[in-house]
Amino acid sequence: MIRLLQIEFIKLWNNKSSRFLITAYFGLMTLIALIVNIKIDWGPLQFNVAEIGIFNFPYIWHFNTFMAAFLKLFLAIVIVSMIANEYSNKTIKQNLIDGLSKKEFILSKFLMILTFSLISTAFIFVVSLILGLIYSNYNEVSIIFSDLEYLVAYFVKLLGFFSFCFFAGMLIKRSAFALGFLFIWFIGAEFIPYLYLMGKYSKAYADSIYQFFPFGSIWNTIEQPITRLSVIRSAVQTVGEDVSTDYAVHWYEIVIVLGWTAVFIYCSYALLKKRDL
Fold it and tell me: Hey, CA dihedral for 42, 46, 51, 52, is it positive or negative?
């Protein structure tokens, strides 16, 4: 496994675009710290973002994992480009000629996806821990290390999304078209049907179906944390809106994403096995 990872890291390191995107990804994750300098001044609503509790333990685990997940597109581009380059540069064929089996080729890509997900999770853990120790009003050990299930959900979210990107790259073999495929899938196969079900039946019914779709299940791993803040909750309640939301990480949502991850990896292997390279 170490050998397979080394092969993938060498390929990525020799690609300038991949190096830039990976650096930008982790750089932007670090910039979450700049949120502390944002000040809101909307008439009577005046406050510093850091003062409303977004960096308090254990809320910071929820907030940072939710926000950092939006940056995963950077690594998605790296992954689909990585697959596209294998075909365009014919390195996939050369690897197989040199003795790498098709199963090992898929395993090497999955190990890279797993590594990206683990490093990203560890990185957001360190950034969140540092910010929390500096700005949190609660520094008891039991509070600091509670709600860490959001990190597990974040890891699974990345793993599922990157596996979907990997499958799209294997299916299309061109990075731009693979990303286009993901967008078309999201709009045509998930978002529009979701709106239809919500309009014809109810939001609850649409949600119950949507949770089993790839993007739907990936999104559901971490519920939005904004209305969890007391200042936002109070503001919304003053206009008569209901903000009751289940913010917990549920095991069955994790299982659904892991199920899709297995499907995407298996289908990628099936595609490679079937193709005449």
Answer: negative
* 40 membership: H or E segment, kind and range: strand 39-42
Closest CA to 75 of 173, 6, 4, 169: 169
Question: How far apart are the C-alpha atoms of 245 and 225, rounded to whole Å?
Answer: 9
Per-residue pLDDT tens digits for 220-236: 999 988 878 776 666 66
CB distance 257 to 160 below 8 Å: yes
Q: What is the Cβ-side half-sphere exposure of residue 228, based on CA atoms within 13 angstroms?
A: 20
> CA 90 to CA 94: how far, in whole Å?
6
Residue with tokens 């919500």: 198
User: What number of other Cβ atoms are within 10 A of residue 155's Cβ?
Assistant: 21
Q: Which residues does 128 contact at the CB level (< 8 Å), separation at least 6? A: 60, 61, 64, 65
- Which pLDDT tens digit goes with each residue over 129-173? 998 998 888 889 999 999 999 999 999 999 999 999 999 999 988
Amino acid, single-letter form, for residue 209: I
Question: pTM of this prediction?
Answer: 0.91
Number of domains in the chain: 1
Position 276: which residue type? D
Measured over the CA atoms of residue 124, residue 125, residue 126 and residue 128, the dihedral's sign is positive
Kindly state the tokens that stand for 18: 């991949």
Quick check: helix, strand or coil at residue 47? strand
Q: Which domain holds residue 87?
A: 2-274
End-to-end CA distance of the chain: give it in Å, rounded. Answer: 24
111 and 8 Cβ atoms separated by less than 8 Å: yes
CA distance 180 to 137: 44
Contact 260, 214 (CB under 8 A): yes
